Amino acid sequence: MLQDRVQTGALLLLGPLMLASVGPNVVLRVNSKPPPQAPNAAKGMKEEAFGYYQEGKTGRGHRRVLTLDLGDGVTLDLVRIPTGRFQMGSPPSEKDRLSNEDQHDVEITRDFYLGKFEVTVGQFRAFVKDTGYRTEPETDGQGAWGYNPDTGKFEGRKPKYTWRFTGFAQTDEYPVVNVTWKDADAFCRWLAQRTKKAVRLPTEAEWEYSCRAGSTTRFYSGEGAEMLVKVANVGDGTAKKKFPDWESTIASEDGYAFASPVGRFQANRFGLYDMHGNAWEWCQDWYGPYSDLSAKDPVREEPVNDKSGRVIRGGGWGKRTPRFCSSARRNGGAPGSRDIDLGFRVSLRPD
Predict the structure, then answer these.
(1) pTM, rounded to two decimals
(2) What is the Cα–Cα distance from 54 to 38, expressed in whole angstroms?
């Protein structure tokens, strides 16, 4: 998807420890469901696919998971991400890498919290209810992208399509989509005012560090794209059955042809869900080369030129997405871009 994606200095294309050997003709079918709790969950522990994470306090006395009250019983969970160093970008040997993903050392010098899930329709609705906010697709007369079930086709920029209506079934547990960078930023500003915390979109470095969660492979699940079926909602065999003309989908089936409710797949080692796939995610940064950024807490705060866009990460559920869901894959879009598989998650700096 992401038909609104723009060029940011170069053509931006749409678009893992091996868990098992999967041949090209092997189809995995996964019955997606909320992640199970471990037997000792009553003691504050949950078992994730790639290890355990503590729901209570860390060794330094900090909350591991922070829950924010959005009103009317709606909450938003954030996971504390520890400081560390990592290799940002992809090695020259990585399949389908882009030339602007050169590996380089990055250090995250302060703990931060990151949304456990992508911001949901229900959470965004709480923001709109409290503020009366109207998104750019609702106010600029252009609308957004959507799916027409009568024709079986995707349609772009029609007023009837917004975050409220995409054309495919979704509940309050689905990731909010068809929001621009400004809309995502407005949600963060509201949450900052409501909680008196430093809330914003994650920087690109924070996003990749959080996605990798210590992994050095193409995806946090390993190198092979077929194994994404366990951790991500991407263009797959389920979608291929509905849209036979889709190219480059994985053969495995996750049961979702469109978006899925958040948290239906396995989390990474930090306890974060849907870092690969489901919805692309806006980041704080302007898009540009890595070479002129600091090695410590890098962030591009100013546009490179008048054609610069904001960074988008993670890939989505749409057409041809598996190769665009890698931990290092970079993309950018004009701040006013909106699409049927474009959303966001929030970052928070602790006191």
Answers:
(1) 0.85
(2) 12
